[in-house]
Amino acid sequence: MAKVLFLIAQEGFQTKEYHDPKRVLEGAGHTVLTASMDGETATSNTGEKTPVDLALHEVHAENYDAVFAIGGPGAPKFLDNDETARIMKEAEARPGMPYGAICFSSRILAKAGVLNGKRATGWDGDGRLAEIFEEYGVRYERLPVVTDGRVVTADGPASAEEFGNTIARLL
């Protein structure tokens, strides 16, 4: 079965966006590992402490079968960085490797250039997603989950389980 990596914020990752897809993927027999900026323990938007397997600087996409960035209020501070961009560019460069993001993290992937020319969705609570996606060459689709080839994006917590099921089907 596949080895999937989730990138989460050190503080403020969205708990449902993390746990629902993880439960779905592990239920399908896949292994889910977690990386954050510093590794060790991450704290969710609800204050839950979650063990982390490795720090972002330790991640090399070739060691995984898929890589996905989880959203939440901490994503802009802890995932919008050069390490996340490097990891996602490595994933994009690997033929056939599924990658993507949920919620706010779709914006981070757009900025990193790995959604250019793709159809995608994400969090649009501030009404700016269409503008951001246009700036980075991404075609915005106002749907809960969007798949474009091997890229999977989702709009937020309500779509977290469907996000996990979509990833599981790709694997």
From TrEMBL:
It holds the Pfam family DJ-1_PfpI. It comes from Candidatus Lloydbacteria bacterium RIFCSPLOWO2_01_FULL_50_20. Coiled coil: none annotated. This is DJ-1/PfpI domain-containing protein. InterPro entries: Class_I_gatase-like, DJ-1/PfpI, Prot/Nucl_acid_deglycase. Residues 2-168 form the DJ-1/PfpI domain. SUPFAM superfamilies: Class I glutamine amidotransferase-like (SSF52317). GO terms for cellular component: cytoplasm. It comes from the Bacteria.
